[in-house]
Specification:
Blueprint: E1 4-5, E2 33-34, E3 45-46, E4 50-62, E5 70-75, E6 80-81, E7 84-87, E8 91-98, E9 107-109, E10 131-137, E11 143-148, H1 155-161, E12 164-170, H2 172-176, E13 187-195, H3 205-208, E14 218-221, E15 227-231, E16 235-242, E17 249-253, E18 259-263, E19 268-275, E20 278-280, E21 285-291, E22 300-305, E23 308-315, E24 344-349, E25 356-357, E26 369-372, E27 377-383, E28 393-397, E29 403-407, E30 422-425, E31 430-435, E32 441-447, H4 450-454, E33 458-464, H5 478-489, H6 499-506
Parallel strand pairs: 1-19, 2-15, 4-8, 5-6, 7-12, 13-16, 15-23, 24-27, 26-33
Antiparallel strand pairs: 3-4, 4-5, 8-10, 9-11, 11-12, 13-14, 16-21, 17-20, 17-22, 18-19, 18-21, 22-23, 24-25, 27-31, 28-30, 28-32, 29-31, 32-33
């Protein structure tokens, strides 16, 4: 029998439960409701070679708790969004529409697309009532990726409003594996978020603001409070996204039911890994297979985060399923780094308003590093926070998938054998990554505690194509964005409050 891992891997003294501002989860005083399953977004048009979608950022109202509806934002939905499917190799066309009252951007977290415009960071704003068209062809492993807003310095607030949805990259290899593939039946998304509900069931981001990350006591799973799912198959494939601004999720089932992780952020794992406990940091994804063979109709299996139930799985009759996972899921081909290439050093430091990368806060018009197109390089990413009073910083790189090589010189965690785009770094730890960009452009890298990136824990790298070594990009500037937000909100720029601006001002700095 394969080894069963029963710990969370990360350093316990750094869990967010030790934060001074930690907000523990509580079970909401609300009736159980069926888990909302986001529908699949229907293409506008599809041919043998091309696929066309329209993605609309919009405001709405969502019945989350009894009583008043909550004002929310979403993509093609009132909150979160419809799940988008991107087959590898097809030429994808996306018509982006902004029906909100303020500018937003559309960041494809986990997609290997060109930066900075298609990637959708802060340099690609779509203004209210306007639209933009992007297109790309993916050449990357199958993965569960996601779309979220990324308009510096209001990324955290817009994600908090609800702008986040899954984007599933598919290919022939993953479709050929004996996995649950029936979306909504045995292939189930779980977007994990948390909120605090204020008067009349409304969210109030500014009231809840914490520069180390906004949290709320109520778990929302796919936007559902106290959800249950009716299990009608022996095995489920859960596609789990930590879509929270700050919260780490320490997941386990009742009875310590083992489950098998098959995929991380950006690809299948090399081999299945069996766990009873899984910790996810912000923006990480994990696909797991849960086998209910030892349960019978009428049983309930509960998924917990720490000691708080977050999803109930109600067992119904199901047909026996004796399919076995292959011992080898993906032949992970590590790119070969140039042996004379220096190791890139990246240092994440600080907490609260003092967060920085390499001792500097983010500047939209500053290029902090360069790397040659197609050239693999080791990155040593260090978290200088001390263990007591420190925190795990989830480190994300746009536009690429990297491999985790080591943690403080030792082997990475057993479930880090595939490609990733986000990795949790413990306080006092250096994580070595192997990074290669296959498309030119300007890309961000940052902590994915979203208030930290808004507060300046972010930098930019330009990937240089040797065929165009002097290519430059028009980069957005903060004054333009600030004036746009102020105009859209009908106030003077000096009266504008955005969380990221607050962090810079309290440090006596200009964005």
């Amino acid at each position: 029998m394969s080894k069963v891992y029963s710990d969370y891997f990360f350093d316990e003294p750094a869990f967010n439960t030790h934060d001074g501002g930690y907000v523990p989860l509580e079970v909401a005083a609300a009736p159980a409701r069926p888990l909302a399953i986001p529908p699949l977004l229907k293409p506008d048009k599809e041919t043998a070679t091309d696929l066309y979608y329209t993605v609309t950022a919009q405001a709405g109202e969502t019945q989350i708790l009894p009583g008043a509806k909550t004002k929310t934002w979403g993509y093609n939905a009132s909150v979160l969004g419809q799940t988008i499917v991107f087959p590898v190799g097809k030429h994808i066309h996306v018509h982006l529409q902004n029906h909100l009252k303020e500018l937003t951007t559309f960041h494809w977290h986990g997609l290997a697309v060109t930066g900075p415009y298609v990637d959708g960071g802060c340099h690609a704003p779509v203004y209210p009532g306007e639209s933009s068209d992007i297109d790309f062809t993916l050449d990357q492993p199958a993965a569960t990726t996601w779309l979220h807003a990324h308009p510096c310095p209001s990324t955290a607030e817009q994600v908090w409003h609800g702008l986040a949805t899954l984007a599933l990259v598919t290919d022939d290899h993953i479709n050929s594996l004996p996995l649950p593939h029936d979306y909504g039946v045995n292939d189930i998304p779980l977007v994990l978020q948390d909120r605090r509900f204020h008067e009349n069931n409304q969210w109030d981001y500014r009231a809840d603001y914490d520069p180390d990350g906004v949290q709320g006591p109520t778990a929302l799973i796919n936007g559902t409070v106290n959800p249950y799912f009716d299990v009608t198959t022996q095995k489920l494939r859960l596609r789990i996204l930590d879509g929270a601004n700050r919260r780490e999720w320490r997941l386990h089932f009742s009875d310590d039911l083992p489950f098998t992780q098959i995929s991380g952020d950006s690809s299948l794992l090399a081999h299945p890994v069996t766990l009873t406990h899984l910790m996810m940091t912000c923006a990480e994804r994990a696909e797991v297979i849960v086998d209910f063979k030892d349960y019978k109709e009428g049983d309930t299996v509960t998924l917990f985060s720490d000691d708080v139930p977050i999803v109930s799985f109600r067992i119904h009759a199901f047909a026996p399923d004796d399919t076995a996972l292959p011992a080898d899921l993906l032949d992970v081909q590590a790119p070969l780094p140039d042996p004379v290439m220096p190791v890139r050093k990246v240092v994440m430091s600080g907490m609260d308003e003092a967060v920085a990368i390499d001792g500097k806060k983010f500047n939209m018009q500053r290029i902090d590093a360069t790397q040659q197109l197609g050239q693999a390089q080791y990155w040593d990413v260090t978290n200088t926070n001390t263990m007591h009073g420190g925190m795990v910083h989830p480190f994300h790189v746009h536009g690429t998938q990297f491999l985790v090589v080591s943690r403080n010189g030792h082997a990475p965690y057993p479930n880090e054998t595939g490609f990733k785009d986000t990795v949790g770094v413990n306080p006092g730890e250096t994580v070595r990554l192997l990074v290669r960009f296959d498309l030119p452009g300007v890309y961000m890298y940052h902590c994915h505690i979203i208030e930290h990136e808004d507060g300046g824990m972010m930098a930019q790298i330009q990937v240089i194509d040797p065929a165009e070594p002097n290519k430059t990009y028009k980069l957005m500037d903060m004054d333009t964005l600030v004036h746009a937000f102020a105009e859209e909100r009908g106030i003077k720029p000096e009266d504008l409050w955005m969380a990221g601006m607050d962090s810079y001002m309290k440090m006596g700095m200009k964005m």
